[in-house]
């Protein structure tokens, strides 16, 4: 009898402990801050993060800060005040990185940077989830070099437009990778024929700045362009079309796949030749999972967690990607 009573008491203690643990898990709240909430990339990314949090029994809150640095800081402080146990963030400006990182350290909560890498004041990298920016840019440059050779552009009046968001180091790393890989594959191409075109990371602005670039270079017959996302490349392609260039007078390859449906859905030829697709929902989900592992189990946050791209073109879009990407 004593043994049975003792066993029941032990089971009661274990059950109480399990219930407490479950309650503790349910009490975890994860915050997610992103810079451009209406963009398809971030819609999918935040959706993936929310799904991962809810599957683990955690509460999920998110905020779109629309490239507003002050709102970013205010949102971070509000989330901390509301009891979040960890935050994932896509910073609107890399310069905010050290500020946000130090705030997280002071609040004693884990922080994960998504898409754009950021650093502490001492130069230590904040745990990062996303793509290897330089390597994915290199993939773009390699594919553009293949197109350049296949289309017989050597000897034509060709310029490269490097469409750059200079506030985002990740963007600049992608463009750098594209440039280096292209020049390695096409060593006769003159670096002086690469034009650097600043833009604000939106397709509307990419159209504007590329239009200005075309106007300033009327003698150029063929254009190559790359950027840090699909918006920059599709914007450039549309600027060429608006200026009367034929689709085969331009070639650009995007990054992220968010505009693949617009670019390839009509079936019409376009200077937008392809995109390196990454499933951003996986980025959001992975960020949440490593935050939860840190909070619940004390698992050390990995410094870098990368995802690999898939190359989408007009040739494989309908058969392999349309059903996945277009709704």
TrEMBL record:
<dbReference type="GO" id="GO:0030246">
    <property type="term" value="F:carbohydrate binding"/>
</dbReference>
<dbReference type="InterPro" id="IPR025997">
    <property type="entry name" value="SBP_2_dom"/>
</dbReference>
<keyword id="KW-0813">Transport</keyword>
<dbReference type="Pfam" id="PF13407">
    <property type="entry name" value="Peripla_BP_4"/>
</dbReference>
<dbReference type="InterPro" id="IPR028082">
    <property type="entry name" value="Peripla_BP_I"/>
</dbReference>
<dbReference type="InterPro" id="IPR026266">
    <property type="entry name" value="AraF"/>
</dbReference>
<dbReference type="GO" id="GO:0042882">
    <property type="term" value="P:L-arabinose transmembrane transport"/>
</dbReference>
<protein>
    <recommendedName>
        <fullName>L-arabinose-binding periplasmic protein</fullName>
    </recommendedName>
</protein>
<keyword id="KW-0732">Signal</keyword>
<comment type="similarity">
    <text>Belongs to the bacterial solute-binding protein 2 family.</text>
</comment>
<keyword id="KW-0762">Sugar transport</keyword>
<dbReference type="GO" id="GO:0042597">
    <property type="term" value="C:periplasmic space"/>
</dbReference>
<feature type="signal peptide">
    <location>
        <begin position="1"/>
        <end position="25"/>
    </location>
</feature>
<keyword id="KW-0574">Periplasm</keyword>
<dbReference type="GO" id="GO:0030313">
    <property type="term" value="C:cell envelope"/>
</dbReference>
